[in-house]
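Narrative summary of target 7.
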Amino acid sequence: MSSYLILADLEGIYGVEDLNDIPRNKELLLAQLKRTIDCIKTIKDSVVKVCLIHGDGQMDVEGDILNLGANYYGGGIKSILNPKSAADYAILIGFHSKTAGAGVFPHSFKPEIERVITDDKEIGEVYLFSKFFKLHGTKVLFVSGEGFFDDEIVFEGTKTHYISSDVNYEDALLSALNADSSEVKSFVTDDEIQLYLNNSDYYGLIDSALYSKERKCYVFASVQNFFENIIDLCIEINRTSAIIRRTNLAFAKEISRLVKSGQAEMPDIELLNKDIFLFNEFEREMVMNLLKTAN
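Modeled conformation, tokenized:
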């Protein structure tokens, strides 16, 4: 008897265009989950498990998944830490490119995360989840989604599939399921993970033992440590994003007031082409000093 874990994200599910259209996206997700489960069930004595990681698993799908004949082990990233979700093989569906990658929804866990580095290279979600599975004795047979993630494959022999491809989904998945799994190999080892945010203001606003002042990033000692702590960090990012947004909105209003009143002239600098909500404390101070100089 072999067990298969379907790890489902949402961005790379067939038909998903608007991440805020929850009823439609649930319908699309369940449709692809059914196709995936049906394929796995062609394998004799297979046990199918499902974890949904998108949006920290807030979409209510447990009853639907049980009705499809699979076991559901919760939503959110931490669901993979549940020992009951462990499996011989993993199937990743609905995935996407890393930050700044190709496709419609490129990101690495959150839009505010500028880059994630481990094993001396920049990586995304496909790489980190695959590495987690490797370190826990699970082979990743198949990864499907949108954008591009061939450069994030941890296992030799993992088959990738893109929803924009002309290749039929079931054909691609069945090919992976029926291939010789002994050829699916990985030699990566555990290593620390560095996470950088797109605004240095976060580092001063978030009180976290994971932050390294020397390296100016968050440092996770291992893959396990990353998945144990990433959700709590993301909650803090959400909280402080609102603070940064309010600060930069007030900054923009003050610049507008000074220029309109004739108290200052707008400096001609490239920095002002930047998204106002990404300005950090140093950049705000620099612009204000230039405004005073222009005056």
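The longest strand covers residues 2-8.
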